[in-house]
Amino acid sequence: MKTKTRSLLRGVSGLAFAAVIALVPLAHANAATTQQYTGNGSDTKFSTVGNWVSGTVPGDGDTIAFDSTVNGVTYPGSLTAANLNNDGTARFAGLTATGGSTDLYNFVINSFATQGNVTLQTDDNASHKVGITSFHAYAGNVTLQGVTVGTGTIDNGNVTFVAPTGKTVALSEANVSALTLSTAGTKIIVGNGVTLTLNDDNLSTHYVIEVDAGGKLVLAPGTTYSTPVTLAGGQVTATGGTSSTTGLKTVTVTANSYYDVSDADSLLRLGTVSYTNSGSFTLSAPSPTNPNEGTIQTGTTSGTGNGTGTGTGTGTGTGTGTGTGAGSTDTPGTPDTAFRAIATNPLTAVIATIAIVAATAGIVRLQRSRRSN
């Protein structure tokens, strides 16, 4: 009886061990990597292995790269003004477009999906241009650095626009309204080197526009904007318009920021202004082109901060309340690569199922053996 029991236990353990060993190389094969596009395939599809240096099709968690400085890649002329066809369902970890000045490319990808915090970026080479027709971020924040997007959906995260080093990016209201931020309170962030110009009050109040250091928000005269605005070191400019009144209904100042009212007889009217982190505003840019600034009026103010005027303009509003800060939140951990492979690879799932069935059968046989003896 003891010999038979030991034999059954060895069989169950052996099957389970073999199944685990079989999973190891599959998990390794699923590890995320950088996939470099060559354009040497028979078409422009992502599913064509000849288009990738690795000879494999990119998958979930991979970063798509266009870079002629590695692996001796020379992009063919067809990549200029080309449309690349992402015909797969993978969710990528990012996109980069870099290379030498002689590599001229200007292409558009029909669709692009991401998972986790990602950056889609081009370098500072003016001839390197990348566009995405349709974009979907299933989780995490998105940074767009020189990459243009037609329409986009962001399920749970912020969108940051940043200019490549030494360049500037001009955004219109249409660029922003083409984005759908599914979670209330998330941000569209105007970063360094980026100017966002708004012409009317058609943007959603579902999200917040944040203007960071080096960013600029330009408001058309005679309009009051409902979308909440956070000033985190950036600049708000109320453009020309004699005797015009421009308004922001809700403003939060989190760092020293600037208002630029370009005409002396123009008015920028602020509704509810809240200060945090002792943020303050100054009426004029650091180097104003027009020293004859207009006037700022504020309504209800709260928090710790102040408004000041420079040049011949005026600034009003001093916060006397006490600001409050939000608590920290837990960040979910990153799933183990091996278990991600089990969840995503059909062959892995089959092997795991076989191991479970074999183990169960061995236990049943062991119980029957004990009862028969």
Counting structural domains, the number is 2
Ends distance: 7 Å
Mean pLDDT: 75
Query: What gyration radius follows from the Cα positions, in whole Å?
Result: 29 Å
- What structural category characterises the helix and strand content? alpha/beta
Mind explaining what this structure looks like?
The structure is a single chain. By secondary structure, the chain is an alpha/beta fold. The protein folds into two domains: 1-30 and 345-373; 33-338. It contains four helices and 26 strands. The protein has helices spanning 2-29, 173-177, 337-344, 346-372; strands spanning 34-36, 63-67, 80-84, 94-98, 105-114, 118-122, 128-137, 142-145, 147-154, 159-162, 169-172, 179-181, 187-190, 194-198, 208-212, 216-219, 224-225, 229-232, 235-238, 245-255, 257-261, 267-275, 280-283, 295-298, 301-303, 306-309. The strands form three sheets. Strands 1, 2, 4, 6, 8, 10, 13, 15, 17, 18, 20, 22, 24 and 25 form a 14-stranded parallel β-sheet that branches. A seven-stranded parallel β-sheet has the order 11-14-16-19-21-23-26. It is elongated and about 60 Å long. 32% of the residues are buried. Mean pLDDT is 75; it is low at 12-29, 285-290 and 309-350.
Features:
373 residues; elongated; alpha/beta; seven-stranded parallel sheet; 2 domains; 26 strands; 14-stranded parallel sheet
